[in-house]
Design goal:
The chain is α/β, with parallel strands linked by helices. It contains 14 helices and 21 strands. Strands 3-4-5-6-9-10-11-12 form an eight-stranded parallel beta barrel. Strands 14, 16, 17, 19, 20 and 21 form a six-stranded mixed sheet that branches. The radius of gyration is 24 Å and the shape is globular.
Amino acid sequence: MSRFLTPPRRVLAFGRVVALIVAYGVAVVVGGCGGSSTPAAPLPTRTQPLQTIFEAQTELFAAPAPTLDLLKHLGVDAVKVFMPWSELAPDPLSHSRPAFDATSPAAYAASGWAPFDTIIRDAAQRHIAVDLALEAPAPLWATGPGIPPGTSSGFVGAWRPVAHDFGLFVAAVGTRYSGHYTPPGGGSPLPKVDFWSIWNEPNYGQQLAPQAIDSSTVEVSPALYRRLLDAAWSALGQTGHAHDRVLIGEIAPRGLTLGDQPGNFSGMVPLRFIRALYCVDSTLHPLTGAAAIARSCPSTQAGSTAFPSQHPGLFQAAGFAFHPYPQQYAPNVGTPDGLGADYADLPQLGKLERTLDGAFAAYGSNARLVLYDTEFGYQTNPPETIIRAISPKLAAAYSNQAEYMSWRDPRVVTWDQYLLADPPSGLSSFDTGIELAGGAPKQPLYDAFRMPLYLPVTTTSSNHPIEVWGCVRPAHYVMLHSRIPQTVQIQLQRTPGGRFETVTRERITDPDGYFDTRVAFPASGLVRISWAYPHRQGGNRIYSRTVQVSIR
């Protein structure tokens, strides 16, 4: 996760440094999360799962087993775990490369591997997937020359990382988590990791620099990322991961375009980054001549023909990862005055897809990369008081709307929650957790994650059914183990403080707990959904947030 204008603050957890930086964006505010009724259209269908990825780095390193137990109880499919290269590399602050076999897991300190080994073992025991994100910073001995004098220490590990060295590191990681590697002194092989993300937010200068040169007219970071991806792709293929789920991109949703931006360390708007990454121009045709050469792209027809085979990760990845943070605005609200034309947040989802498809088409491919949402969240007040922070109640409504939008798009195959608990006060300016810093649920955001509820239309005439979409996320593991379909109750409270009555029951057959139905509500009031855990899991009955409906 990364943002563009405010200097980063950091959260320290067991020696790991997780950058939490304030986001940048401009948008038009619109009110409400529903609308008036229209003639009923066929309900949408979805042909592939929408799985849940959760990011709880601090809690996973502090207490992996209890954290994973909680996440499983919430119905989470996978956890994303960041593995910064410099935290495992020997002598990371030295500019002289140490003598060691960088492809051998045994050449790295056992203490560096230990927390990752524990998380991966514990997750495997609970049938939770691990998306291992191999990311910056690089050790200083694996960075390039020419870094500007006086560069902040938080940025130096992003300066021109050497792709060859990164490939050697990925080979060590791939070997360790191949499913066949037993650490020295261990009694059995470590579980296999088969889910990977390559780098993090490469269109952001703290992760990869320089972003652009020549007064920001020539993109540099896309070529740097292309080389890193080539090296990582090759290393994973050589260490038994040729058929794994490998994600590319991991792009930040926004960037800066005014003045000499993004320069060295600011943010490049993501669609510009993608075009340069795939060596296409603004019309999505292959770059040629000097423009191509300046961006380390093929400048001839023959070179363009060979481009896909020379960079297989760009064209054969399992999916393209994006971080569609919408800031304080509703997830369907774009930006005014063209400022967001090259953004990749949720309002720009269609343009992101068209940009990727056009880049593939430029090389004769009609393949369509699926999209992985691997970071998402709303900053809330409390605890933050900045303009981007909204109330937990509004964040809950917007999050459920965003998940509904994602579910409606067949190209999006994951939903992500970034942060479990807000960091302690003063250590972060990006409080997107579903728990407060002390661990108490941040309501109604906690309930909105556990059981999303969204009604696209909330005002209708009497006896006119309206769409009710939701998800019983914890039902995922219940159905996975018992294969017994679950039932959710759709309830209505007619008067404030009154009893909730069950209007209808909906049978859930989707393996991830989603349902989409129409309900004719008998009166105005508050709508919620209700479900009970099985007795072996405590039998507790849980509820979604509430949504007001008006029946005329």
